[in-house]
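Suppose a colleague, Dr. K., hands you the sequence of a protein chain of 412 amino acids and asks what its three-dimensional shape might be. Before reaching for any lab equipment, you can write down a predicted structure in token form. Begin with the sequence itself:
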Amino acid sequence: MSKFSLNLHEVIFSLSDALDLVGVDQIYHGKRVAYIAAECGKALNLDNDRLDDLFLAAILHDCGVSNTAIHTRLTNFEGKNIGNHCDKGADLLQKRPLLANLSDYILYHHTPWTELMGLDLSEAVKFGANCIYMADRIDILALNGLDSDPDILASREQIRKTIKAKAGRWFHYDLVDVFLNISASEAFWFSMQQVQNSGYASSWIQHNSVQEISFQDLKDIMLIFSHIVDAKSRYTAHHSEGVANLSRYLGELCNLSEYQCDKLELTGLLHDLGKLRVADKILDKPGKLTRAEYFIVQRHSFDTYDILKNITGFEDIAQWAAQHHERVDGSGYPYHNNSQDLSIEARIIAVADIFQALTQKRPYRDRFAPENILQELNKQSRAGLLDKGLVSMIESHFSECLQVAQWIDEAT
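The predicted structure, expressed as tokens, is then:
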């Protein structure tokens, strides 16, 4: 089994960019919540292990949110009709050994202190979950304040007053007290606004050294994000997993090394991260997209690259994911790469993406019958869009490719 030398903090911080895209225009929410929570934790003299857990849980706190409709409801301070995103997020983390210890932080990050204090949880989890809840509501108040005045300092006193009023009911008294202390300075608010570009994030990343992570453990983390992406639309359930499985199978048929096949599988899981920025109504539109809507969709592979390029050790994965809509003749997007620019791995991801999508229904068409899938792939191959050798390989192993690409649909 392959091992990857990676900084886990860097991986999580970079992939959290995908979660931030769900807000479409209110980005970096997760990072600001992590900053606020960590600053409160530091002021309370939490040890480094608890601070790490708090920061990680805070940056991932909305991993159960995939669509913009739920995100919009969460921007209401009272948090009404927030859905079951806490349960979904906790379930995603519970299944991943490296992050399972954070699941209760996610599960209870919208639970008021008066309810939380009586639950059978460790004090660290209760306090951490409540800290994330408070930090989340602080950022929501700040975002809402910016709608009326672009200067964040204009709303800080109202934010402080609102949070103080919830002390003892929504939030632990100690958390409210420490927030009121650290938020008295202008620097707190300025740092919060630019946390994604400040040295705050880089210092946290550097706090964790590069470690050897097994392919399976890394895949478990990537599955969190593939599930978030695929849950954005009811039409794309398990699409990324199907692309990952088919990409790996094709890589093995091409006699690529185990390490390359592992990277192909990871690329398949991550290739559509940028789609989290696309509004639900565009992805689920039953008719033809307008020119403006199509331009928005075209951006998703670039946004995927913009996220993955920040992970040291993911250079190949970032490039292959960015190229999954490129075509051999140079007619694809977003770079208009051609045959000279596209590696066999990039070509595999591209054809696997098309193949798997054809097995599923979309809002504007029904799923393709097996014989029509082959017909469409051959049509695109003859037109110079797809690698002819790969399409020929798929034709020779069609039943196996079909099973690999849609096995999850058959099992559910």
